[in-house]
Amino acid sequence: MTLLKQTILRIARRTGASALCGMLTSGHLRILGYHGLWVTPGYQFGDCSFMAPEQFDARMAHLKGSGLDVLGLDDAIDRLADGTLSRPSVVITIDDGWVSTLTHMLPILERYRLPATLYATTWYSGSGLPVANMAVRYLKEASGRDIDVRALVAEIDGLPVDARLHRLRALGRTLGIDEAWLETRQFEIMSPAELRHAHDRGLDVQLHTHRHILVADEVDRLAAEVAENRAVLGAALDAKALTHFCYPCGSFHPAAPAILEACNIRSATLVEQGLNAPGSDPLMLRRLLDGRSIGEAEFDAYLTGLLHFLRLGRSASARVAALPGLASRRRRGLTHQPDRSATATYPRSLS
């Protein structure tokens, strides 16, 4: 976050502007997005992919004490559609289905009595295999070695399934990284039995495609991916209704909403930051993708609605800056450039 943005957020909290923003956006739905937690000793990998457990705990404590209504996704979508969100409300969503969601996130949610939705991808579910591209990226970063991640992942994914773990372990030994990440199941997706256990404990399990495809590149596969994902989850969860979806990596295609509607999907979430006003397209819902790099002030500003107005201000500034005659002034340094905060990165594919 830039120094200017930090200053604006501090001033807004001290002057009561944040409270005013909350009142003005009381009918807007907030959606928080998470992935897994980093539970392996040593090198801390990932930003939005794996948050530290203590940070997630602090987030949930903040949320519990915020005064916002924390709603289940199904209820929230109903209220957003009929315009009955009379006070600031938030939904907690978790992507992918990492084992740490069951072992570490769910106990925290239970302690604070907060509902949440898990968007579960299923190709790796029950395989006992780490997700290759994430494991290789971790081994590269933890070792500090310059290795070709893309080539190694392609090699591993091309091996017979029963040979992939052996290759990953060999790579870790070569790079001098111990196997703590294997012992903690850091990069494993929950098995069908674990998904059922999480569901039975109150976690709402929903759709995320079977192979974690990038919808922008493979929209022609979307309907089949939803059907396969739904079949695997339906069997694991005893035919639970599965009508909510998350675009893997936020990858979007203009044709996707119509395809999802034909698949009887009620809502779909992106990773684009923003609030969801009454009348928002339920198949293009915005979220705050939370992570290590998101400070407490920025997190709170999203919940209050302050970030919503900062975003509107940046958009208005960009439109003004694009007016005829301003380009030459900008080159002479006579206009301010809009704030462009760093965006999070996350894996392109799980399969």
Mean pLDDT figure: 87
**What share of residues is helical?**
40-55%
Tally of DSSP helical segments: 15
Class computed from helices, strands and strand pairing: alpha/beta
Please give the largest β-sheet.
6 strands, parallel
The geometry reads as: globular
Tally the beta strands: 10
Fraction of residues in β-strands: 5-15%
Rg calculated over all Cα atoms: 21 Å
Order of helices and strands: HHEEEHEHEHEHHHHHEHEHEEHHH
Distance between the termini: 32 Å
Low-pLDDT ranges: 326-351
What can be said about this structure in brief?
The chain is about 45% helix and about 10% strand. Strands 1, 4, 5, 6, 7 and 10 form a 6-stranded parallel β-sheet that branches. It has a two-stranded parallel sheet with strand order 2-3.
Describe this structure as you would to a colleague.
By secondary structure, this protein is α/β, with parallel strands linked by helices. It is 45% helix and 10% strand. The C terminus is likely disordered. Helix 10 crosses helix 11. The relative contact order is 0.17. The chain contains 15 helices and ten strands. Strands 1, 4, 5, 6, 7 and 10 form a six-stranded parallel sheet that branches. It has a two-stranded parallel ribbon with strand order 2-3.
Helix and strand topology:
Blueprint: H1 3-15, H2 17-24, E1 29-34, E2 36-37, E3 50-51, H3 53-64, E4 69-70, H4 73-82, E5 89-96, H5 99-112, E6 117-120, H6 132-143, H7 149-157, H8 161-175, H9 180-183, H10 192-200, E7 204-207, H11 222-236, E8 244-246, H12 256-262, E9 267-269, E10 288-289, H13 296-304, H14 306-321, H15 326-331
Parallel strand pairs: 1-5, 1-10, 2-3, 4-5, 5-6, 6-7, 8-9
